[in-house]
């Protein structure tokens, strides 16, 4: 080896180790607590409407605060993480949104709700791109999209767990318990990451001066005596300089960046509009609250299944061959979900919608992580998520307007299908 080791080829040349699996599980836990918190307002919305006498439009504004914060957090945290590391930004974000979730449980007014949800969203927005980037950087190229999707399946899993917590505890203990659970869990995960999660291997290589730490990590992936004599580690990609956001529009990346932003916008518009308003719409239609909460759980549960299938399909075939049918079927599922009757058929169609739309979201997360090089990976994923969060902001706000205007469930779902086709 002449004292030089290619760190990226080292990961690609060996099977996924137990150490890498542990990293992916830790990052999946991070995604799970983020998913729980991101969907929390959707679960408590029907109760808050009545207990705090909040108008639908005002509730839409409260729900929109989290994605506003996520957009800002993703835009800020991506470039910061590309400079100081993924791990500190991820742990800091988990800590902040754990604290502000606990504060949300004490909120009694619309302005306080909005502020706490804004800061919580800001922290979550900083976590997501770094969870995705770390997974991509510890995954071998041949399985990168699959592993990123499996890791990010923690997000809908967390949302499903949130539904179970809400369905069992909300009616008996009140809405604050949802945020108490959502505040304690990220603080616990932050402590686990502090003690067990390594920094990005590729980040350490590109920033230099950490040869001993790099060798220790590579040795945990695949022990080899040659690592003891290694004097230099490098990657199979060029080092980028300059402001990381500008590099997203370098020749060969500009078109990809713009198209990713559009797709992220559309996907998150639909996910946030449907997941946050479905329980309220079902409850308003006479479905008992507990069953209404299962609607969002079905949506997120479908996302878990879809994430795995889309990730595997994207590694085997061209991602476009997988993602284009996903969004077409998501639009069809929306149209059907608006017209079926009975709790069972509604849950089935929402499950299919989650499989195709949230599965597609996982797919473009993995795609973004795979097209950007190490120096701008957190920035690329973060800005795609940040721009996409504009859709997550508009979705709940528009949902509140449509509900306040007494639109029917079929009409709202048909309206939401339009951007999915686009």
Q: What gross morphology would you assign?
A: globular
How many strands, which pairing sense, and closed or not: the largest β-sheet? 2 strands, parallel
Q: Report the mean per-residue pLDDT as an integer.
A: 80
Question: Biggest sheet: strands side by side, in what order?
Answer: 1-2
The portion of residues forming beta strands comes to: under 5%
Instruction: Report the C-alpha radius of gyration, rounded.
Output: 21 Å
The structure class reads mainly alpha
**How many separate helices?**
18
User: Helix share of residues?
Assistant: over 70%
Gap from first CA to last CA: 51 Å
The run of helices and strands is EHHHHHHHHHHHEHHHHHHH
Record field, number of beta strands: 2
Uncertain segments: none
Write structural notes for this entry.
With 422 residues, the chain is mostly helical. Helices cover 80% and strands 1% of the residues. The protein is built from 18 helices and two strands. It has helices at 7-13, 18-38, 40-51, 56-84, 86-104, 110-138, 144-152, 154-173, 176-196, 201-207, 211-221, 244-247, 254-284, 289-316, 319-337, 343-371, 377-404, 409-421, and strands spanning 4-6, 232-234. A two-stranded parallel sheet has the order 1-2. The longest helix has 31 residues, at 254-284. The chain is globular, with a radius of gyration of 21 Å. The relative contact order is 0.17. The mean pLDDT is 80.
